[in-house]
């Protein structure tokens, strides 16, 4: 048996000149922009990229000129490979980005070259949404139809892992570490603001389980923390005029300021790596908003990144799913 794990993520531009083509790839995805006509969708994606790229470039400039997502994901892949090997399951780990490099196509090409016979598809999104995990798995299925991948190897897919115990434990550990950044460490005085990436509200009405799974993640993490902190769930990163899941993180922060909540710890619940939404949107834009809204102390819990329990969670999921 030659074992392999393909980690999926959306990707992010590593240089400013990559921002515009990345945006085009993102908004060309039929699971992001639901327009049946490929030509119309790609035309709209081109227009969005043309209009937004200067603003987006400025945001990436604020975090050093590019996204660290690829670097962190490749480090996660390396750590996962070491952990599976330590468990007695030598496994090759691949990274495939839906909207950037290294692409899913390139990863599949390498998987075929390596002669993998048992492959686990593991999206790096704890909660399922058609816009993330669904898009990655659907694209992989299109490659399977072209290349006959299932006739060459056993393939096992993970759709969600929001309730994986070691993932929940890692998030609780990270929150306890974040608590240490406050001047007063009494948990009842620190409000947890779980901030998840938003999706269009109509997707949830059509059956997308993302909202329910995000709420379940928050409940499980709070239980792991012995419900020591008051908490609120909010959503960030909406784009365009359609109605998105709310309340928005921006609105919640302003409301917290009006209610004289003095200490807020933002918890990026749907993100497993540092990237533009954590490093710029939360750390810069929301921090500034919080302080101007009257919140005395605002800090953010780290993304899981390479937390040992998080890596262990990925290893357990892969081994269990692939029947290693």
In short:
With 324 residues, the chain is of the alpha/beta class.
Describe this structure in words.
The chain has 324 residues and is an alpha/beta fold. It has a domain of 136 residues: 3-Layer(aba) Sandwich (Rossmann fold), CATH 3.40.50. Helix content is 48%, strand content 15%. It has eleven helices and eight strands. The strands form two sheets. Strands 2-1-3-4 form a four-stranded parallel beta sheet, sandwiched between helices. Strands 6-5-7-8 form a four-stranded parallel beta sheet, with helices on both faces. α3 packs across α11, α6 crosses α8 and α9 runs parallel beside α10. The chain is globular and about 60 Å long.
Name of the level-1 CATH class of the domain at 165-300: Alpha Beta
Low-confidence stretches: none
| Main beta sheet strand tally, sense and closure | 4 strands, parallel
What is the string of helix and strand elements?
EHHHEHEHEHEHHEHEHEH
Mean pLDDT: 96
The rounded Rg comes to: 20 Å
**CATH architectural group of the domain at 165-300:** 3-Layer(aba) Sandwich
Amino- and carboxy-terminal Cα gap: 9 Å
Helix content: 40-55%
The coarse silhouette is globular
CATH fold descriptor of the domain at 165-300:
Rossmann fold
Q: Enumerate the strands of the largest sheet in spatial order, edge to edge or round the barrel.
A: 2-1-3-4
Specify the structural class: alpha/beta
**Strands, total number:** 8
Q: What is the overall number of helices?
A: 11
């Amino acid at each position: 048996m030659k074992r392999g794990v393909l980690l999926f993520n959306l990707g992010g531009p590593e240089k400013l000149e990559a921002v515009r083509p990345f945006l085009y790839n993102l908004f060309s995805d039929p699971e992001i922009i639901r327009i049946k006509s490929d030509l119309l969708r790609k035309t709209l994606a081109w227009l969005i990229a043309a209009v937004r790229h200067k603003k987006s470039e400025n945001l990436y400039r604020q975090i050093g000129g590019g996204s660290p997502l690829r670097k962190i994901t490749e480090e996660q892949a390396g750590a996962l490979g070491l952990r599976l090997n330590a468990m007695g399951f030598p496994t090759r780990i691949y990274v495939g980005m839906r909207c950037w490099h290294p692409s899913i196509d390139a990863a599949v090409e390498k998987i075929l070259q390596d002669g993998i016979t048992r492959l686990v598809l593991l999206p790096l999104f704890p909660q399922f949404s058609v816009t993330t995990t669904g898009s990655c798995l659907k694209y992989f299925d299109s490659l399977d139809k072209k290349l006959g991948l299932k006739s060459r190897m056993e393939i096992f897919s993970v759709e969600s892992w929001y309730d994986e115990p070691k993932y929940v434990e890692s998030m609780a550990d990270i929150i306890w570490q974040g608590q240490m950044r406050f001047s007063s460490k009494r948990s009842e005085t620190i409000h947890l603001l779980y901030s998840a990436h938003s999706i269009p509200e109509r997707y949830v009405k059509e059956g997308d389980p993302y909202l329910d799974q995000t709420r379940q993640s928050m409940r499980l993490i709070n239980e792991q923390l012995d419900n020591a902190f008051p908490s609120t769930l909010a959503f960030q990163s909406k784009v365009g005029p359609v109605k998105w899941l709310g309340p928005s993180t921006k609105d919640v922060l302003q409301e917290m300021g009006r209610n004289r909540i003095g200490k807020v710890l933002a918890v990026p619940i749907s993100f497993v790596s540092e990237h533009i939404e954590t490093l710029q949107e939360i750390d810069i834009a929301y921090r500034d908003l919080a302080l101007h809204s009257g919140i005395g102390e605002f800090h953010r819990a780290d993304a899981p990144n390479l937390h040992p329990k998080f890596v262990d969670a990925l290893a357990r999921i892969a081994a269990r799913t692939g029947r290693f």
